[in-house]
What does this fold into?
Amino acid sequence: MEAPENDAVGFESAEKIILRWDSTVLEEAREKMIFDSHRDEIDRYLQAVDEIQRSMESTTLSDDQDKANSAIQIAMARLEDEFRNILIAHTSAIEAESLTDPSPSSVHSGEFQLPEEDYHDIPTDDDSFTKELEHQESSSSSYRSTNSIREVDLMPSVAIYDLQSIAERMISAGYLRECIQVYGSVRKSAVDSSFRKLGIEKLSIGDIQRLDWETLETKIRRWIRAAKVCVRILFASEKKLCEQIFEGLGTATDDACFMETIKGPAIQLFNFAEAISISRRSPEKLFKILDLHDALSDLLPDIEIVFESKSSESIRVQAVEILSRLGEAARGILSEFENAVLREPSRVPVPGGTIHPLTRYVMNYISLISDYKQTMGELIVSQPSTGSRYSSDPNTPDMDFGELEGQTPLSLHLIWIIVILQFNLEGKSKHYRDTSLAHLFMMNNVHYIVHKTKGSPELGEMIVDDYLRKLTGKFRQAATSYQRATWVRVLHCLRDEGLHVSGSFSSGVSKSALRERFKMFNALFEEVHRTQSTWLIPDTQLREELRISISEKLIPAYRSFLGRFRSHIESGRHPENYIKYSVEDLENAVLDFFEGYAVSQHLRRRSQ
It folds into this structure.
């Protein structure tokens, strides 16, 4: 070690200097700190310590050895106090402007929310999103940047020089453990203070798992922001300080002091992510788990740099294992979600055949999954196990994934979810007593699936055009089936068959049959109008298209029938009882259909 540039002192002079600063004996020594004194006083004391150590190495007499040992013990106790005092004097939590992640933040803007009708019937085990972190660029030389790591200078150079001088002598005298303990206890309190500023709480894994999910969502957002700061700034800066003070002193002292300081806080930090990774799975947790996975994956290269030594291997291993468990949790949740959609048990038909809450829930969910397609695409590497071949299980839909060759495993999973959603909806449609309403229900829901898929660029990219065309064909077929089930009976009333009579005395139109035909048409149309005005097609364009299609079949048929047979009714008694509606009346009545509420007045009678 290098002696301060002062005149050398002999053993007796050195011993006097050591004893003069013995705080166990002298009151004055207790009240003052050597390293608060003039530089000359500091150098004299350090030189005295060096002389005592040299004397210990050269003396052979036991009395001299005892005196040297006594002096060095007093000196080491004093230097330990001085070491602690310097650390405390220059220890404070990192300034707020430094507690900002220096790297660009990759965040997802969307959070999973239930649709307008909150949906709670999916059976589960458990009954973006952050602001962009500001990137504070600085021209100051107080830190150096390596990729996304920013090392802040935690102490002034003079304090570092004094700490290094003390550490060198304590380690040389065999007081390495004491030096590490003092350093670790003081610096750990500074790290704890920064943790509090970042909102990192001391919670056990059990404490975290007992929190409700809404509280955890907030804590996850805070953790992601804090973890980036801890690894890239806080831990990196602590490592740099250890290197500045202890590097070159042998026995990997700098790394030992670093681990003494941050091992506990690092475990505390990563325990939070570990608790989430092993918590009970439920669909609403997927997106926060993916956010955690993305954040930790992004941090892993920096963790490898900051915790590169052998002694910090456990921290690296913990981070890698948590990342793996988060990925496994995401895969497990997706699989459980697929099964939950397939088995969702609700049997009560939604009023008016509108979009089922399950449909909204599932499509919102897979739309958000598509927002995470890069992460999920890396995690999902195999196609769905259910439905990979034609199934003999009547409770599972048939699906041959060979028809979708070339699609990514994630795309196949999303398509499979849509398939099982349709399968479930078809089962629910059977609970409608009215066949027409069952078809309308399927039309509404499959149309919503198509509309939602096309409305999301990310989801639209993952659901192939051929499958979308197949879905479009399904809702159009449902619309056709609805019209056939509803309007064939009504239009059947407007046929000519059965109205003409022929015989030996007369031939022509049977007025009684014609009257019955008009009465039957009126009754059927009024019933359809009364009922189907309460049915609902939420999509404005789809509603208008179906009304137009109905009108294109009904209005020409009624106009033609009325034109052919009006005179036969009007020439008889009380024609208004049979020809109740004009063509215009029917045109207006069709506009009442599918609004989702009962019309406020009866179908208007034709003008007399």
Notes: The CA atoms of residues 228 and 299 lie 7 Å apart. The two ends are 119 Å apart (CA to CA). The chain has 20 helices and four strands.
